[in-house]
Structures are given as C-alpha cells and as structure tokens.
Amino acid sequence: MTVSAPACPFSEVTFVKRFSFSLQLLLGLVAGVALGLAARAGEVAWLTTALTQVGSIFVQLLKLAVPPLVFTAVVVSVANLRNVNGAARLAGKTLGWFMATSLAAVAVAIGLGLLIDPGRGVTIALDGAKAVDLEGAGTWTDFLTGIVPTNIVTAFAEVKVLQIVFLGIVLGAAAMAAGEKAEPFLAFSRSVLELVQKALWWVIRLAPIGTAGLIGKAVATYGWDLLAPLAKLSAGVYLGCLAVLLVVYPALLSLVGRVSPVAFYRNAWPAIELAFVSRSSVGTMPLTQRVTVERLGVDRDYASFAVPFGATTKMDGCAAVYPALAAIFVAQVFGVQLGLGDYLLIAFVSVVGSAATAGLTGAIVMLTLTLSTLGLPLEGVGLLLAIDPILDMIRTATNVAGQMVVPVLVGRSEGRLDEDVLNAPPQSLEEPPAAAPAGRDADSRDAEPALACAGPGGSRRGTGARARAR
To answer: Cβ-count burial of 297 within 10 angstroms (0-12 exposed, 13-18 middle, 19+ buried)?
Structure first.
C-alpha cells in the first residue's frame, strides 16, 4: 500500500511568491539607507526618531532572549558532548581552531595597521571623548574576577553574558557527571532552549524591518564630520575584516577543509547578513546553528556544541581585528611607540581574551583589556565610541562567519560533514526549524510525516544529514 505524503498547499503557492529571507534582508538594508539619507538631507527629525525606535526595539527583542538562550544553550551543548564519540578530541580541535583563526586575524590586522598608520597625523580633542564606565573591565584581574558571579540573579538580571556562560559550563559539566539524576534538569533546559529559539525565530523574521531601522538610524545620525578624523581607522577595520572574510577563511576552507568557499558563503550568507545588521553574535545564534546544520551539513550533535560555544567565545572581528587596529590608532594618537613585544602582546590578548566580548554588541571590554595590557591611555576607548556602531556591523559579521568556518573544518576532519547538503542548492529558511525531540536519534526524524512536506525547491535536505558518522 502506498502512503502519499501530506499535501503542502502553502509550499507551492505562498513561499514561491515570497522573497527569500536573504533578499528581504537586502531590501531592508537598501530601504534603511534610503530613509536614512532622506532623514539626514532633509533634517526630518521624526523620521530619524522613527528609525531609531524601530532599530532599538529589534535589538531589545534580541537582547531579551540572551540570558535564557545563552544559559540553556551552553548547558545543553556541554551535556550533549556525552553523546558524541571522541567528545574531548572534538572540543580540543574546536578550541584549537578558534585560537588559530584568531591568531591569523590579528596578524592581518597588525600588518594592515603598520601599513596604513590609522592614527598618524590625527588630532582629536580629549574633551570630546565620551565617558565610559570601565569598572570591572580595565585589567586582566578585573576580567578574571568578573567571570565568577557574586550573585546568580544579578548575572541574569544585568545580562552579564560571561558569568552566564560560566554558570552554564559548570552546570552542564555537573549534569554530565551526575548522569541519570540530572535528566530532569537537562530535559527542562532543552525545553526552555527550544521555546526561546522558537520565539527568537519569530524575532529574526522581523529582521528586514529591524535592518531598515538600524541602518537608517546609522546613516541619519553619523555624518562625515564625525567620521572624518577616524576615516582611516574605520576603513582599516572594514578592510581587515574583509581580508579575513575573503582571504583567510576561504584559504582555510579550500586548503584545510577541501570545501568550496563559494558553496560555504552561498549557504552561510543569511546568518552573516543578519549578524551585520543586528550586531549580536548571540542574537544570531539560532540562525547560525540552523545554517550550520541544514545548509553547511555539519553533524547536528557536534554543531549543538560548537555553535553556542563559538557564539560566546569566537570573535575574530571584535577580539582580533578591531582591538589590534584600535590599539595602534590610540598609540599613534597619543604618541606612544609600539615595539615587537607590544605587537606580540596584542596577539596574545586577542587569542586568549576572546571570551571577554561574550557575544554582545560592542567590543569595549576587549579594547580596554588590550589597551591596559599595553599600558595605553584608556581615554582612547571614549574616542572610538562614536563610530563603534558602524564598525560593529562588519566585526560581528566576521565573528559569525568564523563561528561557522570552524565547525566545517572540524566536521570535515572528523567525518561529520555532509557534502551533499553543503553542495546542494541552499535550503529555504522560510519556516521555523523543527526541533529534534530529546532522547531520540536524529536519524529517526526522517520518518516523521511532517517532514515530507517540502519547502521551496524540494525536500528538506538537511534533516537526514543531521546525524552523520558517529
């Protein structure tokens, strides 16, 4: 007896007529630039205010999900390692590649900084520097003591991501050690994670509108008069991040992972684009993980560890490219000569201190760590706050791209990469991701009737490949 697949009336009609998610983001970007230019040229205050409010609401919705998302994602990802063969080896390789790519990114930034001299000849009045609260962020001692929360409620209420990550790692490891007794806690954590990811997916679907607001506000607010003294630094940060995105990562994908960079970026683009406009690695994490599994073909069990881990610690843009160029800029503005030892210290801070950025918008903590380690004036942080939102867009896009490159490299070396998924036409992201029920093997999901309902372009190719060679 032949059982027919359930009809999918919306697949062939609604979704085919709808713009793809990537195109929606692009249209939002174009609309935001146009509205921002109109608001600035015509000095239309209400339009600038409206764009600001739209962008702020979108970012606030992303931030709202950060504490439960980070905590449950870290707990579940650490606990999931017990289901992965060679978990310690996978974790070690992942961390090793995080450090290696950070070192490559900071080397690019230092070389670029020495080439363009971003602060040479720049004169900025210090009284124009914005005040910035550096309490608990100025030194390595402050950073290290700030990892351990003094109050669990405060860590969540004040969204101290690094402390939330610490709690998640400790409790995830404890759950692994406790075994069956910890299953109720893990089941609860998985349920909360699924709920938050579902809700956050709805927010992500609003990204085209949020994009218009964020980009429009940036264009309307930041004029050339503000950017002119920092134009060389701004260009350097964009050039450095683009060099990492278009040279370092493709070289690693081609030479180490034997993966087509074109296929990688074609599939990874929606997550990179959302990261650019949202300026939040953590806020982009659900989409990053979905793309990593369903479009790049990385094994679901491994990706459930690598992506959350990367979203909170893997920051090539914020922790490598930006602080290196910014430190060179500040040194040149204040007339401080940097030597070989100083450049080595910049590289060390970038590789070891990446977790200080913790996946939120901005990289102030990482910059203060770098400047304090080098003994440079911390007033330099205030000088750069004005253009931080503009620089943060390309920094975050670089962060998220690296958070997908490393799982692909490790997945390839461990036989946990499905090339059929990676090389297939990109799977539609119109529908929310379907979660794998706890306690079941991911392969068994292929038999569920609901998954026979094909989205645009055919069957859901990523589903059957989520559980690769174990």
So the answer is: buried
Contact 36, 51 (CB under 8 A): yes
Give the angle 135-137-139 at the CA atoms, nearest 5°. Answer: 110
Q: Angle at CA 246, nearest 5°, toward 359 and 96?
A: 50
pLDDT over threshold 60, residue 136: no
- pLDDT recorded at residue 188: 93
CA-CA distance, 195 to 59, in Å (whole number)?
19
| Per-residue model confidence as pLDDT tens digits over 410-423 | 999 998 999 999 98
* 42 vs 431, higher pLDDT: 42
Residue matched to tokens 């030194």: 139
d(CA 362, CA 358): 10
Amino acid 441: pLDDT? 40
What is the C-alpha to C-alpha distance for residues 171 and 113, in angstroms, rounded to an integer? 42
* Number of other residues whose CB lies within 10 A of the CB of residue 339: 8
pLDDT at 131: 45
Least confident of 49-63, 121-135, 262-276: 121-135
CA distances from 225 to 222, 230, 231, 292, 326 (A): 8, 10, 10, 41, 20
Helices (H) and strands (E) in the chain, counts: 24, 0
pLDDT classification of 409: cutoffs 50, 70, 90: very high
Q: Give the number of residues written for the chain.
A: 470
Closest CA to 399 of 304, 327, 311: 311
Instruction: Give the Å distances, CA to CA, from 465 to 15, 296, 299, 452, 461.
Output: 24, 10, 7, 15, 7
| Element at 199 (helix H, strand E) | helix 183-205
The Cα–Cα gap between 236 and 232 comes to 6
